[in-house]
Amino acid sequence: ILKDAIFIQNLPKDITREDIQDAFSTVGPIKTDERSGGPKIWIYKDRMTGEGNGRATVTYDDE
Question: Where is the RRM domain (predicted)?
Answer without folding.
Answer: 4-63
